[in-house]
Amino acid sequence: MAIKNLLVLVILLGVLGVSVAHPKGLYLNYYKYRCPDAEAIVRRVTVQYVSHEPSLAAALLRMHFHDCFVRGCDGSILLKYPYNETERYAAPNLSVRGYEVVDAVKSALERKCPGVVSCADVLSLVARDAVIVINGPWWPVPLGRRDGRISRKSEVNLPSPLAGIAALKKKFFDKGLNTKDLVVLSGAHTIGISHCSVIHQGIYNFTGKADSDSSMNPRYVRALKRRCNPADNRTIVMDPRSVKKFDSHYFNMVAQRKGLFKSDRTLLDDPETKSYIYTQVATAGSSFNKDFAHSMVKLGFVEILTGNKGEIRKRCAFVN
Q: Where does the chain bind Ca(2+) 2 (predicted)?
């Protein structure tokens, strides 16, 4: 309860522009004196990229999530070396994109304030600002993360799109996140884009008998088959109505049993997540933006490095 109350305070003071410390060592307005234009620079570069290519919002939000779930929010997903051995080369991350945005932001910051702003903070801010570009919610981003020096492909064990509710809840609990965070953050799939290969089994051969997943709406299965033939791996949007706009329509899709992934559909298998979904449908997502902001603040604190731990990279793809 104390942590929950503190997060509410962080959000409130962020709105008011007041600096506040978190027990884990992050601060709002952390760069106020050492790089006062840092957040404005991040915002400017991010808006340039995402305005031109709105699908980058989903990509950058996904990158932030994938980073935080492996070794915490330390920018380790950004590292390239040793080649083919770091997190970005793990199977779930091969489709992650948007690195050029982070690199462009970091380059702009290095020109203004060399060696000051961490790549972990850059990624946290870029994810927030990218969502804002497509009409998503704002949330405060306390800063002061340090960059990790270790990135291992073998350690990437993310929540799977094929996972059931019990496995998903454990993944989130292990990171200090709860069941509500799980369903709320799943709502980001409203702007999600995937590939046909991820859903082939669910629509063509779910139990090995040339059948589809019975938890899926049959009309939705037919629509997916028209989009994805058995040998196809084209891209597919998770919420066709709002792929370029951040809103709560994802929950309408899930309530109609039109969740693209098993991890979406299984949210109807838990009383708490199911209740949240139907509440958002009934109220046209009245609390979703506020809830999403709260959960994103929590995500940004997962296993962070502060103080003398880690480093401030000069280039995000390489340790110093």
A: 190, 239, 247
Residue reference for tokens 């006062």: 36
Nearest to 195 by CA among 260, 133, 252: 260
Distance between CA 67 and CA 213 in Å, rounded?
A: 30
Helices (H), 205-287: 218-227, 249-255, 262-265, 271-282
Judged by DSSP in three states, 84 sits in: coil
199: nearest Cα among 143, 259, 158, 152? 259
Q: Residue 20: left if φ>0, alpha if ψ -120 to 50, beta else—which one?
A: beta
Burial of 91 (0-12, 13-18, 19+ CB in 10 A): exposed
Q: Is residue 82 reached through a cis peptide bond, with omega within 30 degrees of 0 on the bond before it?
A: yes
Report helix, strand or coil for 195: strand
pLDDT at 17: 47
Closest CA to 63 of 299, 306, 305: 299
Three-class secondary structure of residue 212 per DSSP: coil
- Delineate the domains of the chain, giving CATH numbers in brackets: 37-158 (1.10.520.10), 193-236 (no CATH)
Sort residue 307 into left (φ over 0), alpha (ψ -120 to 50) or beta. Answer: left
- What pLDDT was estimated at residue 2? 45
Q: Which residues pair with 236 in a beta bridge?
A: 194
Q: Do the beta carbons of residue 148 and residue 71 sit within 8 Å?
A: yes
Q: Which of 22, 66, 189, 200 is catalytic?
A: 66
Taking the chain (320 residues) in runs of 10, the rounded mean pLDDT of each run is 50 48 80 97 98 97 98 98 96 97 98 98 98 97 98 98 97 98 98 94 93 96 95 91 91 98 98 98 98 98 97 98
Residues 129 and 136: their CA atoms lie apart, in Å, by 9
Task: Map residue 194 onto helix, strand or coil.
Answer: strand
pTM metric for this prediction:
0.92
